[in-house]
Design a protein that fits this description.
Elements (H helix, E strand, L loop, with lengths): L2 H43 L10 E4 L5 E7 L5 E6 L5 E7 L6 E6 L5 E7 L7 E6 L5 E7 L5 E6 L5 E5 L1
Antiparallel strand pairs: 1-2, 2-3, 3-4, 4-5, 5-6, 6-7, 7-8, 8-9, 9-10
Amino acid sequence: MTTSDAEALQTRVAALEKKLKRTSIGWVMMLVLLLVGGIGVERAMSQAQSLQASRLDIVDSAGHTRLTLGFDTTGRPGMWMYDNANKTRVFIGFGSSRATPAITLLDDTGRTRLFLGFGATGNITPQVTLSDEAGKPRIYAGWNTQEQPFLNVTDQAGKTIWTAP
C-alpha cells in the first residue's frame, strides 16, 4: 500500500466516521422525540373527552359576562345573554311553569317583549306573544283554550281590537 492509498483510505474512514456520528445523533434525537411524543399522546388520551361544569360564563375583553350557560333556580337548563349594562336581554331555555322550551327577548328595562314557547293558556301548544313598552301582551298568536289556531291583537288597555278566527 502506497502513501497516497493510505491517505485516501484515511480520508474515506474519516468521512465514514462523520456519517456514523451524524446518523447516531439522528437516531438518538428520533428516540427522544418518540419518547416525548408518546408521553404527550398518552397524556392527551387520558384527558376527559368533554368539558363538564354546572355553569359557564363567557366574558368579553373587559371581563363582563355576556353569555351564561347554566341552570335557573328551579334546576332547568338555560342560556342567558346580557347587554353592555349586564342586563338579561335574551333567554333560551325552559319555561318556569313547565319544562317546555322557551325563547324570551327582553328590553333594556327587563320587560319581556317577545315570548316564543308553549302553553300560556294551559295547553301544551306553541305560541308567540309580543308585548308593548309597558310589558303588556299586545299580539298573541297560538291556540285558544279549545286548541284552535288563534290570533289576537289588543290595545293598551288590553281590549281586543282584532282577532282571527
